[in-house]
Amino acid sequence: MEKDMDNDMQISAREIEKLIEGGIAFTKNRVLKFEECEQMEKVKGCIALRDIIGNPPYFAFFYPTKKQRLRIVFDDKNAFHRLYMHIKDSGYQSLDIEPTHDADCNWRQQKEIERNKKNQRGKTFMKSLLKYIKDYKKESILAPLFKMLEASFELMVPLVMAAIIDNGIAGSHTPYILKMGAVLVLLAAVGLASSVTAQYFSAKAAVGFATKLRSALFSHIQGLSYTELDTIGTSTLITRMTSDVNQIQNGVNLTLRLLLRSPFIVFGAMVMAFTVDVQAALIFVVTIPLLAVVVFGIMLVSMPLYKKVQAALDKILGRTRENLAGARVIRAFCNEESETADFEQENELLLNTQVFVGKISAAMNPVTYIIINIALVVLLWTGAVRVDNGIITQGEVVALVNYMSQILVELVKMANLIIQLTKALACAKRVEGIFEITSSMKSGTLDKNDIEAMNEGEENPAFFFDHVSLTYSGGGEESLTDIDFVVNKGETVGIIGGTGSGKTSVVNLIPRFYDATKGQVIVDGVKVRDYKLSALREKIGVVPQKAVLFKGTIRENLLWGNEHASEQDIEDALRISQAKEFVDTKEGRLDFMIAQGGKNLSGGQKQRLTIARAIVRKPDILILDDSASALDFATDAKLRAAVKDMGNDMTVIIVSQRAASIMFADKIVVMDDGAVAGIGTHEQLLADNRIYQEIYYSQFPDKKANAANEQARR
Predict the structure, then answer these.
(1) What domains lie within the chain, and their CATH numbers?
(2) pLDDT for 118 beyond 60
(3) Which of 275, 146, 262 is nearest to 205 (CA)?
């Protein structure tokens, strides 16, 4: 904080960045220049901050005080309180924080700030949309051009028909009628060819755009940390990946086909009407605005309702996914009727909303037809008078009627197009909201070679926790509090505790699935935040609580641990994990096909394969997170013995609620309510740790009786 504040404002911005912890992330692309802030001369910078769930950014202005202290001023009082809660215990004592009601601050009006935010979001949104269609520029240009070519031929049809009536039929000139009939067929053929070509290019551009967007979205989701995935939810992400992207694809397709065609036909028909007869064409001048008011008025009323329909549909999709995933549980508890009733209630709400907006939209056709029919009556009456006076011909009246009908059709098409575009834009904004969520976990810079160079000649612990605390996003209270212990290389460590005591939270910090909110987790002498995520996780093999396998062969699933593993490595991993005995019984052994999610395997078989997958990696640290819950005691004992006899310096962490699984560990960590309640060997903890005694004797009641008798004899 003692740095010269008159230097580049980025220095100050980095100082601010250090203070931002927890659910608030610093976004460098939102840094504003001093001139844009339009503030007093003493202001040295203006930054914008946003929280990780994508709320609109708020502004913070900073400048040095006379005492070389940094003062931060927020335009939003709630934002000030949120940040203050994050930095009050950060150790920066030379910090003044104030909301904007400070008298000496002359900031922009809030309304102007909000407008700038909205404009910025709009620009960002358009850029992100165009980014995925840039490889289809040719198709995006050719599709509307061919559609306008089709529209041009369509505008010529009424004139040809007028010529047939006036010159062919009136004069009984059969060759002329046939010739002009052939012209109509030619116009239809060329129009059809243009339409098909336009459809081909628009479909190619729309499908290609959706493919790139879906791939980019999937890649972005893969880069999010556990914190963001927990906040967003898997059902939301699936909806964005599927229905929302499909809706956007349809919107792009319709836009390329109709966005230019419909206005071209409407105004082209009016222009062509003026070439036929100016007085009669004035009817078009009155009719088109009336039709536009009706069509777009109904559209403006229905657009917000369509957004509600889409939101209700998203809710139903989420519930459907939840019910299908938990079908066994629902049936086990005979809760089908209740779930069906809840689904029908939500479905009824969706139906009512759709019916309501459908009624409003349905009013478009009768109202437009009333207007167009009145216009046609007036047009026919005017045309009849002018034909009777010899000003225009009968064929020209027919042409004017055809132009009026074309306008009606295209305006209705235009309205439907805009409704579809509204749905597509709503979906696009939701997808863009996912892209705007950036991972709160930033990868470090140190790779494997850097770590080896730093640790050359040094003997560091495998890992240790330095007064670590953890608060989950939106969790409120701390899930872990002041975790502090050391684990040496080659040790087997057991972590035990009751349900919700924080066992899994502790081990999740080692591979940096989550970041500690206080303290440091240090692996092999280096803070986990300084590791490249790939380098850190290459050192660690994780067997999660829930066994997860992917569709493919057993071999393909095991190679997830190490794609370069040899056959011997795979066989050794199967033997150690106690999976070899059932793999040998499968048809094709390693080439046996596993169904999606491992549905054709039992729970114990899936767990053993996930353990084998982690062992294939030959990690420095092996984490077994309650991985023996589906194994019998005999298999569990064989597994522990095989892991211990691997004969390398692997550090093994066993998380379990079974005392039998961890009682032979070199060190046992007892967890209770997010804190370490004791550390020691089995004998030490059994002698003086009440929580460990309760766990152990609840599982071995006979041991409790023996211990009581022994104590009584003494």
Answers:
(1) 9-126 (no CATH), 132-436 (1.20.1560.10), 448-539+619-713 (3.40.50.300)
(2) no
(3) 146
